[in-house]
Amino acid sequence: MGQFVSVERGKTRMSINEYIAKQFANPRGIGGRIVMAVMNRQNAQMYEETERLLRPRNDDIILDIGCGNGIMLERIAHACDCHLIGTDISEDALEIAKRRLAGTNVELLRCPVDDTPLEDATVDKALTINTIYFWEDLASGFEEIARVLKPEGIFISTHYTNRALESYSHTQFGYRMRTEQEVVSAAEIAGFTVQIKSIMDGRAYCVVGRRQA
After folding, report:
1. Which residues contact 186 (CB under 8 A, 6 or more apart)?
2. Which of 63, 133, 139, 148 is the most exposed place for a label (fewest CB within 10 A)?
3. CB–CB of 154/54 below 8 Å?
4. Any idea where the domains of the chain sit in the sequence?
5. CATH code for the domain defined by 44-211
6. Model pLDDT for residues 148-186, shown as the tens digit of each residue
7. Cα dihedral 168/171/173/178 (nearest 10)
8. pTM for the full model?
9. Phi first, then psi: what are they for 57, rounded to 5°?
10. Do the strands 61-65 and 123-129 form a parallel or antiparallel pair, or are they unpaired?
């Protein structure tokens, strides 16, 4: 017999795994805070590899898509003097990020990946970590990122392989399993030249895209 938690005072009931999956997709309340803390620990190597590939420099304008509680933005802020932009759909996550990043040159926006309020060709580098499973549509996500990036701008998406994801029971709820080829194809159609970097003993990989001029 499965375990259940009540949401909205019993009006809706869902399994614990479904609840966890929803929190990973859009962190809210105490559960969201716990999930974000777990993500920060689990993603430590992803943060390190992504920052190394991104090579942030002074005066870069860098966009973090699905920035969560701002831990990756904080890392970059400590590495260089650049302008940072973080987007997320979670209001709770952005509130935590705002406090974490107080005093830094950062702009936080609540919006989905495929509908940002940024002007065309205004971003030098963009990144996202473990969000691609929650994008409604790969093509529109990559097209929007290509739109806001400057020519020759860099985009890095770091995420688990499908095989690694399937080892977690909560990923059967709301996670869109995309193959590496599907991700690469969508990026190339949007105008990126793409390289793949395998990390974490093959359990995850970075899609490194350069926007064509």
Report:
1. 138, 139, 141, 142
2. 139
3. yes
4. 44-211
5. 3.40.50.150
6. 999 999 999 999 999 999 999 999 999 999 999 999 999
7. -150
8. 0.90
9. -130, 160
10. parallel
